[in-house]
Amino acid sequence: MQADLLLRERHALIQNRLKQSGRVLAAELAQELRVSEDTIRRDLRDMASAGLCERVYGGALQILTASSPLSERVTVAPKRKDMLARAAVGFLKTGMTVFIDAGSTNLAIARAIPADLELTIATNTPLIAAAVMDKPGVTLLLIGGKVDRQVGAAIGAKAQRDVEVLRPDLCVLGACGVDIDTGLTAFGFEDAEFKRFVARRSVSVLAAVTNEKLGLVGSHAVIPIGECSTLVLEHDAPATAGDAYGQLGIQLVRSEKGME
């Protein structure tokens, strides 16, 4: 009975960590819980079989599917996304027109914009619009149309017509996956079409990417990797991935290490 109780407690703790950080490492959990790594690996295998996580080398990731709405994605790994946002917001300069695409990390970027920074923000995402609306330095342009509940943004024909009048200095692009060969991808067809449209109307493109999206390929292409001007990666993103993107001439920036 005691062993079963401890097992349930471990699984509950692992699920809580996955929600907070989006990932767990077997070695760290074993040290914290004072059990063997084999025990943690068995826990993760059992949880993966039950559909509670995705097993990866050295640990596990929280499962988020293509149908996970933005309102759910924003609750995953908020501290990691805040650190990416702090690194990305430095690319927003006075006088710029910046398009901020849908995405939970992009929402963190919007929230991190200094209140007195004078620039124009265009977005198709109501949550991002709400995040910048009360910043006195920001002129807000809200791209309209029917809002897709999963994407959390307007992505249809009306939204594309609104974007036609813009020539953003910077597009902060959301991506479901970033791969050296396939480029930036999305899970939804209309979402990918809209992202591609606005990215190619922009002078430059920035993507802030959590580790689990590196090497991930969505079902619909957005832009080739060479059309992305800047990639903002986590502090512990694999060095090999960073080197590969850097060799293509993409500006690479790593976030600072934050407290989990």
Question: What would you say about this model in short?
Answer:
This protein has 260 residues and is α/β, with parallel strands linked by helices. The protein is built from 10 helices and 15 strands. The strands form 4 sheets. Strands 6-5-4-9-12-14-15 form a 7-stranded parallel beta sheet, sandwiched between helices. The protein has a 3-stranded antiparallel beta sheet with strand order 1-3-2. The chain has a 3-stranded antiparallel beta sheet with strand order 10-11-13.
List keywords for this structure.
seven-stranded parallel β-sheet; three-stranded antiparallel β-sheet; 10 helices; elongated; 2 domains; alpha/beta; Arc Repressor Mutant, subunit A; 260 residues; Rossmann fold
Question: What does it look like?
Answer:
This protein is an alpha/beta fold. The protein folds into two domains: 60 residues, Winged helix-like DNA-binding domain superfamily/Winged helix DNA-binding domain (Arc Repressor Mutant, subunit A, Orthogonal Bundle); 185 residues, Rossmann fold (3-Layer(aba) Sandwich), CATH 3.40.50. Helix content is 38%, strand content 21%. The protein has ten helices and 15 strands. The strands form four sheets. The chain has a seven-stranded parallel sheet with strand order 6-5-4-9-12-14-15, sandwiched between helices. The protein has a three-stranded antiparallel sheet with strand order 1-3-2. Strands 10-11-13 form a three-stranded antiparallel sheet. It is elongated.
